[in-house]
Amino acid sequence: MALPIPLTFLIDLLTLFGIFAIISMSLNLEFGYTGIPNFGKLLAVAGGAFFVGAVPGRIIAYLFNTPAGSDFIKNNLEVVSSINQVLMNDPTLSICYLLLSLVGAALAGAALGYIASYPGIRLRGDYLAMTLLAIAEVLKIIGDNWEPFIGGSLGVRIPDPFRWVSGEYRPLYVSLTIIGVTAAIFIYLEFVSRSPLGRTLRALRDDELSARVYGKDVDKLRIKALVVGCAIAAIGGALYSFLTASVSARDFNRVTHTFWPWVMVIVGGAGNNLGALVGAGIFVTVRRLITFYKSYFETFLPFDVVWLEYMLLGLALLIVLLYRPEGLIPEKPTKTLKYEYIANKRATRTKPK
């Protein structure tokens, strides 16, 4: 029994919202809180997807000795089909495979973020942005041309951790999983932003010299922010791969996975996790409505409907920059502990025993 069309549309909308919300929140940590102009967001997103396409399937194929041979790329369809048969009958194994793959993708993203930060973190402004953008393009070129990695330009199929779910309900389970991960990341970033570390990152963003004067290791803090941001973005890339059950370097590009997240953060409001969610929600909703109702637009538009989303989102960005440069949800001062609470704590520590 197929799901109703409105429910299918809502599930698809929430799924894409969750993925882009994760990416935009990671960019908000780097740019909104720390001031790092990461125009290489593609690096981490593609890195998480490439890890999922290259590593977990090979490990499972080795552990279960699949009959199609050890070459995961050349015998990809046969190997993945064999693995899916195992996952179909074992939900526990499927969930473990999903969780461990996300952890591995996050570690891969963190490693890429650290590698990218080493040559580029001491640069500032446009130079840092161009360096990160170039490094991201290098990774994409490797994925698109090195066939043993993820199948080259043809890509590779990956084992489906939702294989145990009946076909018509698979999108629902995928959507719930992605929304759950998005909520967990949002809560984590909210704790970070309200912690002393979050206030230190804001100080670094607003006045780097003052942060150095107060003894803060600016380079180390920037590296930490970039590593954590890349780890979070890599989770988004891995979830997108599990959604499609495949990985191809050509599914990832700097427009979709770098420039659009920038639009989301700027429209929603930088330095504000809720603003990143709002920006992602507006972006995804407009795109899906245009895609879903494009047959109605084609009758009276003098150009291809494909360009409508670019025009509308570009127009929205211009309006926001002109009239609300701080975004739809401006950044607010971080709430700290009340003075009385701090005074009581100090009195307790200094009270003689």
What's the end-to-end separation, in Å?
71 Å
Q: How many helical elements?
A: 16
Report on the biggest sheet.
Answer: 2 strands, antiparallel
Structural class: mainly alpha
Shape: globular
Radius of gyration: 22 Å
What is the succession of H and E elements? HHHHHHHEHHHHEHHHHH
Mean pLDDT: 86
* Poorly predicted runs: none
Annotation, overall tally of beta strands: 2
Helix content range of the residues, please? Answer: over 70%
Strand order of the largest sheet: 1-2
Portion in strands = under 5%
Explain this structure:
The protein is mainly α and 353 residues long. It has a domain at 11-252. The chain has helices spanning 5-33, 41-54, 56-63, 76-88, 91-120, 125-145, 147-150, 170-193, 196-206, 208-213, 218-244, 254-268, 273-292, 294-297, 308-323, 339-350, and strands at 156-157, 246-247. A two-stranded antiparallel ribbon has the order 1-2. It starts with a helix and ends with a helix.
Summed up:
Helices cover 72% and strands 1% of the residues. With 353 residues, it is mainly α. It has a domain at 11-252.
